[in-house]
């Protein structure tokens, strides 16, 4: 293969040498959208589906109507899907979005019409607000958003990432109908730690599988194979290293190619990147060349390898011809 533009099957294929000028000098730092960083949880807000238990001191008939031997949830009162909450003598209240202190103050003022100096305490014993999880987690059970703020790192830690099948770079947080892509690998790379992101009720966490994130290494390497990767990128050096490297007996050092298909035929033609790997120094450049899913890395054979393979195919053929000629001679003598 030669450099420059080539025409294959009526399509232009651009040949690009892999040099120090081509590869990126450094990775750009990962960014987190400002709206995610600016969201802070302050006071817990009551949510539909919460179960509240109201303790009215010196009035057990209001505190534990089901009996003191029952569990707290049994004596609790559910916040309805429309955000309303019923309590004796106070009636039906719209408590959605209220803080615990707001509800305590409201109930105190309502009960004061029937009780002398009522003393109340309110606790949440069941939570209706949750964060959902999908994808390459070990445990995708929805997680409660409680009175203790829940962070993204805590939710991921509880769910546990499937290290073999996850695509860390493809993580998406969905909030209020908007998707926020977050590269978990880039945010926690080179000694940095991802900033704290607080979750809110209704958030959805999606971690895709990496089964479609593959590169293919073929040709004169020790172990040709398809390689999946879970990180932001995979360097050419890493890909060759996972396959055992170039075959020292059969490979051609200056015939290492990365074949990248057509994404947008009108704007971006297919490209073949060429690495001259005769010198070990070439792998310093290859270490900064990032592969993309679907790339094909091909290592060509040395000239002597092609000649040996030609001979291996030619010798059986010559043997067949020799045997046929010998048989024909023997038949001729027999006649």
Automatic annotation (TrEMBL):
Gene3D superfamilies: Outer membrane lipoprotein wza domain like, wza like domain. InterPro entries: Poly_export, Poly_export_N, SLBB_dom. Residues 130-205, 213-299 form the SLBB domain. Keywords: Cell outer membrane, Ion transport, Lipoprotein, Membrane, Palmitate, Polysaccharide transport, Porin, Signal, Sugar transport, Transmembrane, Transmembrane beta strand, Transport. GO terms for cellular component: cell outer membrane; pore complex. Residues 41-124 form the Polysaccharide export protein N-terminal domain. GO terms for molecular function: polysaccharide transmembrane transporter activity; porin activity. Its main location: membrane. One of its GO terms (biological process) is monoatomic ion transport. It is a multi-pass membrane protein. PANTHER family: POLYSACCHARIDE EXPORT PROTEIN GFCE-RELATED (PTHR33619). This is Capsular biosynthesis protein. It comes from Luteimonas gilva.
